[in-house]
Amino acid sequence: MSQGSDHRSVLDLSQYQAVLLDLDGTVYHEDHALPGAVELILRLQKIGQPYACLTNSTTSPHQLVSRLKRMGVEVDPAHIYTAASAACDYVLQRFPQGPRVLNISTSGVDEMLEGKVTWVKDDHSPCDAVICGVPVNVHATEDRLRAALVQLRGAAELVAICADRVYPSPRGMEFGVGAFTAMFAYAANKKPVYCGKPEPRFFNELCRRLGVNPQRCVLIGDNLESDILGANGVGMKTILTLTGVATRSDAEHASPQLKPHAVIESLASL
Ligand SMILES: [Mg+2]
Questions:
Q1: pLDDT tens for each residue of 9-36
Q2: How many whole angstroms from 55 Cα to the centroid of ligand 1?
Q3: How far is the CA of 125 from the centre of ligand 1 (A)?
Q4: DSSP 13
Q5: Domains in the chain, CATH or no CATH each
Q6: CA of 263 relative to ligand 1 center, distance in Å
Q7: Residue 248 falls in which region: left (phi positive, over 0), alpha (psi -120 to 50) or beta
Q8: What is the CA(27)–ligand 1 centre distance, in A?
Q9: Cα–Cα distances in angstroms (integers) from residue 154 to residues 118, 123, 143, 188, in the given order
Q10: Cα of 226 from ligand 1 centre, angstroms
Q11: Residue 150: which H helix or E strand, with range?
Q12: Distance 241 CA to ligand 1 centre (A)
């Protein structure tokens, strides 16, 4: 771990073109803001420094705005990038003629692609992509899942919102997008395209939207395998916060690609 003057310099946020903040485990946990989070976002807004909140959530930015607002901070949806946003960007770029999409994930994906794609809901209409989320989802109905299987055994591409194996919920642990996608990948013998963290496309597309160079940005997150690995991979500076899944010991024993440039107790350290 860097210490001394080097450590301080990584934590000086004013030097970066943009500050990228993970949400779950960094800015909030369930329905409460974590220490220093609201203050940091308000400070970035006040000084006009470009920033973005990012998450492997399968929802749309609009659906996260109200959650943040309840915690005392108003964030424009343009400053939020979700893995579902990245999946939508991917299909629009991959099939520029207008993708034909079977959505087995969320209403957030409906919202972001409405008017830009042709929706497929059966097993025989032409289909370019199946967008896969978690098993507990409004569109993960038995009929749609069977249609998706047939489409994937045909020409459709398997687009996974992210590769997370599991995710935490108030009930405990749930099957993640990666786990559910693996079921389709196996059944259809098809390689998925992953869109969320730690994929380079996620970080690069976010920076493209912000008009900044990834190598001049800093990412602050709680997860070594999604946040730190992904951001290190595109040349960002990385700060691990200990309010989420990773411990100081995890960071100290991490392989070079997963090692953050600095570790903080919480966003209050900034
Ligand atoms: Mg997190």
A1: 899 999 999 999 999 999 999 889 999 9
A2: 7
A3: 38
A4: G
A5: 4-56+198-269 (3.40.50.1000), 95-194 (3.40.50.1000)
A6: 14
A7: alpha
A8: 8
A9: 18, 9, 17, 8
A10: 8
A11: helix 142-153
A12: 9
Q: How far apart are CA 161 and CA 132, in angstroms?
A: 6
Q: Kind and range of the H or E element at 250?
A: helix 248-252
What spacing in Å lies between the alpha carbon of 222 and ligand 1's midpoint? 5
CA gyration radius, the chain: 19
Q: Ligand 1 centroid vs 210 CA: distance in angstroms?
A: 21
pLDDT at 1: 47
**How many angstroms separate the alpha carbon of residue 50 from the centre of ligand 1?**
20
Structure-block tokens of residue 28: 């909030």
Q: Do 110 and 81 meet the contact criterion of CB atoms below 8 Å apart? A: no
Report the separation in Å between the CA atom of 107 and the middle of ligand 1, taken as the mean of its atom positions: 22
pLDDT at residue 168 in the model: 83
